[in-house]
Write a structure and sequence with these properties.
- The protein is α+β, with helices and mostly antiparallel strands and 156 residues long.
- The protein has two domains: 2-77, Ubiquitin-like (UB roll); 86-151, [2Fe-2S]-binding domain (DNA polymerase, domain 1).
- Helices cover 31% and strands 16% of the residues.
- It has a five-stranded mixed β-sheet, covered by helices on one side.
- Strand 3 and strand 4 (55-58) form a beta hairpin.
- Helix 2 crosses helix 5 (140-151).
- The longest helix has 14 residues, at 103-116.
- The radius of gyration is 15 Å and the shape is globular.
- The protein starts with a strand and ends in a 5-residue tail after the last helix.
- The structure holds FE2/S2 (inorganic) cluster (2 copies).
- Residues 97-102, 134-137 line the site of one FE2/S2 (inorganic) cluster.
Length: 156
């Protein structure tokens, strides 16, 4: 077992974990953060995307021990004082989801995209989200959601 200390959604946590434990497993199984989901076993779908020190990562592709000392934000840490994050609100307003399985990862990736490029073109949005798969929407409303969020002030 290896001792890790990190901050998750604003809360400091300390745990002993097996060195092989994935960050996504740690979040879901140890912390109960089941808003971060697992959609594949090949690092392809992006459903498990979280922010590690402010940058989006696929949490199935990171070991929990690699997050030692880091700040992790999941979809469950976005809303503040009962108010949805702007990007969450935009996905709701623009119907950027159907079954919702890809949505946590899409939103976390969209925030990272908008942080780096506050006014992305449609093409830049599509490229920025290419690591996140959606089986339902055909992506059009997801792109609209990100455009709407950009128009509203982006990743803030
Ligand atoms: S569960 Fe991480 S990329 Fe699919
Ligand atoms: S809304 Fe169902 S997978 Fe994207």
């Amino acid at each position: 077992m290896t001792r890790i200390n990190l901050t998750v959604d604003g809360d400091k946590v300390a745990d002993d974990v097996e060195p092989r434990m994935l960050l996504v497993q740690y979040l879901r199984e140890k912390l109960g953060k089941t808003g971060t989901v697992i959609g594949c076993d090949t690092s392809n779908c992006g459903a498990c995307t979280v922010h590690l020190d402010g940058t989006s990562v696929k949490s199935c592709n990171v070991l929990a021990v690699q997050a030692d000392g880091a700040e992790v934000t999941t979809i469950e840490g976005l809303a503040q004082d009962g108010e949805l994050h702007q990007v969450q609100e935009s996905f709701r307003e623009c119907h950027g989801l159907q079954c919702g399985f890809c949505t946590p990862g899409m939103i976390m990736q969209s925030i990272d995209l908008l942080k780096n490029n506050p006014k992305p073109s449609e093409q830049e949005i599509r490229v920025g989200l290419e690591g996140n798969l959606c089986r339902c929407t055909g992506y059009h409303n997801i792109v609209k959601s990100v455009q709407h969020a950009a128009a509203q002030g982006g990743a803030q």
